[in-house]
Design goal:
The protein is mainly α and 107 residues long. It has one domain. The chain is built from six helices and no strands. The protein has helices at residues 4-18, 24-36, 42-56, 64-77, 82-94, 96-101. The mean pLDDT is 86.
Amino acid sequence: MRGSRTLLQAILPRILTVAHTFSCKELCYLIHGYHKQNLLSKTLASQVEEGVIKTLRMTKDITIEEIALITKVFCTTRSGSREFHKLLETTVLQRLEDLKKNMELLY
């Protein structure tokens, strides 16, 4: 793991320019990795939030796995605006029956 912090810092500007091309899952893993290294910047967090919001707004099309991953990552990293968390809560409540059927995903 030597040098990984330096590498993450070095590629951050490039990631910020192409963040809009990543999928929702990729964005979640990205923000989680930067959080684990204590390198999560507000700029990265806001760009990831924008990308994830697009997925959350498609309530009927979002998969249960994506909801579980988004919830885990954004609760762990404690990032995201108040509006984001309200949207996440609404999505979870709308898909609660599906989530209850797949409880193992939430652990």
